[in-house]
């Protein structure tokens, strides 16, 4: 059986390995000059391939998922798969799982070795322009060339990181067969914010809890390292909030403390209310608890010069200072675009596919990974979905071929 896989990302490589090992003649068609470009960039080049917590709430779609990625491709199935690749996984913060080398190249090289060992074929710099049903199979067109396959797996990715090759072209291939696309928007990306202080605070980090507000109501909260940039904020807890901002219109804002590890610090509210305990100058007091760049922001917002003794501040000045220390607020104007996003939210509607991700409109045509309307939280969940969906499709094709 000839299998054509369009896209040489994680989904395409994994499906290719499993199908080639089952005796299928598999060809991966990759539009870029090499496969796995996006994989090499994930996890800051370390490949966050999965997570210790596989509860179902970490994946999102407009429709119910055809199967639970964490149950179907369980921790045991994951262990067996990576053991077969010769890769040990290690766990870091928030349950993130990485290859023990902490290098994405380790995963890519192992997948390619396994694929080639099973006589799989790669055709790079080959962009598939269209797919048509033909004589019990499919005809793939690439420029003046054409290729026949009994079955086709579309694993082109979504629109995130288009420099890696995932620029949304796969949507058109599926639409030609009647499939519908849901609204797409960037996910796992930095938030764009407005503040006259952002340029000054560029590069500053805060370790704490950040809350996202929509129309004045708190809708999500995450904890971790928050990084301020010239145009907004990023960091692991911020990336998790991007999806909520992209889901619908509203007035968004974020709030987080200026103080690192606020839960471990003294009760500054009581301290500041006891005037006699703080005869030091405001700047000296702030220098002891804040990074230098934040001191300027507090003094500016409170209308202080810095030399004022803390025990002589008015009630209004103390209240304003406390609110800033505990809850610095930034209006959110949007999410950084697909060039910076790690995943696409939305994609080809799941209603057009079977539980094994086979097209209901063109039997023998499958879709895997990010091209579908499934996206996961930050922390390895999108690669886990890529693994699970590829495994599901390969198992179905092998089973039906017997």
Automatic annotation (TrEMBL):
Entry-linked PROSITE patterns: PROKAR_LIPOPROTEIN
Keyword annotations from UniProtKB, A to Z: FAD, Flavoprotein
Domain annotation RsdA/BaiN/AoA(So)-like Rossmann fold-like: ranges: 2-394
Highest taxon of source: Bacteria
Cofactor list: FAD
Domain RsdA/BaiN/AoA(So)-like insert as annotated: residue spans: 190-343
SUPFAM superfamilies: FAD/NAD(P)-binding domain, HI0933 insert domain-like
PANTHER family given in the database record: OS12G0638800 PROTEIN
UniProt-recorded name of the protein: Aminoacetone oxidase family FAD-binding enzyme
Organism: Aedoeadaptatus acetigenes
């Amino acid at each position: 059986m000839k299998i054509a896989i369009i896209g040489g990302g994680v989904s395409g490589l994994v499906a290719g390995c499993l199908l080639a090992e089952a005796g299928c003649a598999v060809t991966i068609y990759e539009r870029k000059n090499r496969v796995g470009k996006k994989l090499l960039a994930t996890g800051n080049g370390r490949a966050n391939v999965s997570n210790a917590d596989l509860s179902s709430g970490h994946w999102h779609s407009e429709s119910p998922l055809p199967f639970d990625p964490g149950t179907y491709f369980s921790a045991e199935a994951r262990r067996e798969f990576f053991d077969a690749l010769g890769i040990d996984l290690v766990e870091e913060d928030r349950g993130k799982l990485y290859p023990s080398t902490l290098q994405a190249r380790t995963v890519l090289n192992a997948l390619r070795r396994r694929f080639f060992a099973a006589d799989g074929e790669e055709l790079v710099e080959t962009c598939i322009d269209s797919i048509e049903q033909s004589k019990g199979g499919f005809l793939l067109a690439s420029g003046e060339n054409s290729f026949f396959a009994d079955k086709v797996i579309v694993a082109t990715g979504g629109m995130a990181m288009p420099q890696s090759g995932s620029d949304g072209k796969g949507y058109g291939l599926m639409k030609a067969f009647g499939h519908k696309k849901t609204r797409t928007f960037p996910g796992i990306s930095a938030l764009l914010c407005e503040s006259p202080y952002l340029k000054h605070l560029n590069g500053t980090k805060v370790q704490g809890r950040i809350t996202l507000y929509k129309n004045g109501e708190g809708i999500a909260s995450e904890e971790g390292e928050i990084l301020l940039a010239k145009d907004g904020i990023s960091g692991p807890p911020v990336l998790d909030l991007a999806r909520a901002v992209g889901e619908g219109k509203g007035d968004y804002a974020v709030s987080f403390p200026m103080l690192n590890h606020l839960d471990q610090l003294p009760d500054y509210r009581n301290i500041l209310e006891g005037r006699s305990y703080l005869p030091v100058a405001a700047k000296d007091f702030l220098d002891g608890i804040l990074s230098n760049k934040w001191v300027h922001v507090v003094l500016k917002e409170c209308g202080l010069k810095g030399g004022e003794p803390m025990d002589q501040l008015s009630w209004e000045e103390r209240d304003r200072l406390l609110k800033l220390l505990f809850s610095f607020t930034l209006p959110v104007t949007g999410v950084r675009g697909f060039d910076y996003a790690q995943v696409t939210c939305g994609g080809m509607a799941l209603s057009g596919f079977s539980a094994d991700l086979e097209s209901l409109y063109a039997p023998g045509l499958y879709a895997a990974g990010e091209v579908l309307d499934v996206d996961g939280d930050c922390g390895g969940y999108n690669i886990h979905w890529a693994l699970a969906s590829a495994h599901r499709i390969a198992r179905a094709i092998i089973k039906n071929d017997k």
